[in-house]
Design goal:
Elements lengths: L2 E4 L9 H5 L5 E4 L2 E4 L10 H5 L5 E4 L23
Antiparallel strand pairs: 1-4, 2-3
The protein binds iron/sulfur cluster (SF4) (2 copies).
One iron/sulfur cluster binds next to helix 1.
Length: 82
């Protein structure tokens, strides 16, 4: 499953990530965005790109072989052994 993380220590509660997510993966609770339904994430990265403080990270989990030039450090869960 895809992983979406939100660092609340960096967050300024601007709601941009919450408004950017068209799949309701991110919900608004108690002044902060919370990740509730990561299984519905389309990995569009809009939430991550819309955050002015770099608090949101989207880590796609696509268990298929990806060419080596692809940035492995960006998508650690997407590489399979072999
Ligand atoms: S990557 Fe797209 S679908 Fe996934 S949580 Fe962010 S805005 Fe929503
Ligand atoms: S876009 Fe970034 S700063 Fe704004 S609410 Fe979301 S995590 Fe917080």
């Amino acid at each position: 499953m895809h992983v979406i993380t939100i660092d609340h220590d960096l967050c300024n509660s601007c709601k941009r990530c919450y408004k950017a997510c068209f799949n309701d993966v991110i919900v608004w609770e108690e002044e902060f965005p919370q990740v509730r339904y990561p299984q519905e994430c389309a990995t569009c990265n809009w939430c991550e790109l819309s955050c002015p403080d770099g608090a949101v990270k989207v880590i796609p989990h696509n268990p298929v072989r990806i060419p080596e030039p692809y940035p492995r450090s960006f998508y650690p869960l997407s590489y399979v052994a072999g």
